[in-house]
Amino acid sequence: MSSRPQPHLHKKPTSFPDVIFTAFSLFIIFSSSNNPTTSLLRKFVSFPLNPRRFLRIPTMSNPNPRNPIHHHHFPNPQSLSDWLRLRMPSDSFASWGVKPGTKNVNNLWLELSEGETLLADSSPPVRTVEVMVVRVIGKDNKVLVESHQELSNGVVRNRCRPLAEKMKPGETVEDAVFRAVNEELGSVLGGEFRENGIVKILPNSYSKKVEERVSASYPGLPACYVLHTVEAVVDGLPDEEFCTEETDEYGDSSGSNMVKDGAVSCKRHYWKWVDADSYGR
């Protein structure tokens, strides 16, 4: 009598949903238990209550303002214009140099060629600028403010800001302060004032912050301003409102004379003293 073959027992493979269900059941059991083993496990196994906390939310500017996502080389203003047209609202871009108080593509190209401005490759691009802000302190704790500017095209642009100048690549704060004072106020000071102590940077007055807003000079172009601020005393300035002249804003630029002449430049700065408390920082 032959033995009856025994059927082979095959272990049914565990399906992926079963694994999830089992893991979830164990988690519920451990979560509802108060024994020491469960407490120990909780220290090593955690589940976020809000998974969105762990998502990297994109921001308007690159975390490192001096290193945008991409750095482009534009051989001339026309190549920059062609690049911008593909990435910006047409109505905003068309207003550059036309709307009173704005600058044009030549201005932005000169900024890029000198390393004063960086553009991130996005739509629209993000312009990053490091700015040296000098709060000039005068008598009775008053602060010097540029009330308005007269531009090369005859437009008067309101400012109501302290002395400010775009920083050069690799420039120190101290060097930027003296250059800003020379370029903005030099016509009423005269001479080499760095060596004779006319400009005194106040100790412990340095601060830094980042502001993100749409540029007033280039409508529709978001901007990230890295503001380096110091307070300084500048001897020899008039006590009343006064005006300074800027003979050649782009004189040191490597751009051609045709590009410089086509850019909107500042011809005169108008200054006044205001109460520090009313103006704020």
Automatic annotation (TrEMBL):
InterPro entries cross-referenced by the UniProt entry: NUDIX_hydrolase-like_dom_sf (IPR015797)
Superkingdom classification of source: Eukaryota
Family annotation (PANTHER family): RING-H2 ZINC FINGER PROTEIN (PTHR36395:SF1)
This protein's name: Nudix hydrolase domain-containing protein
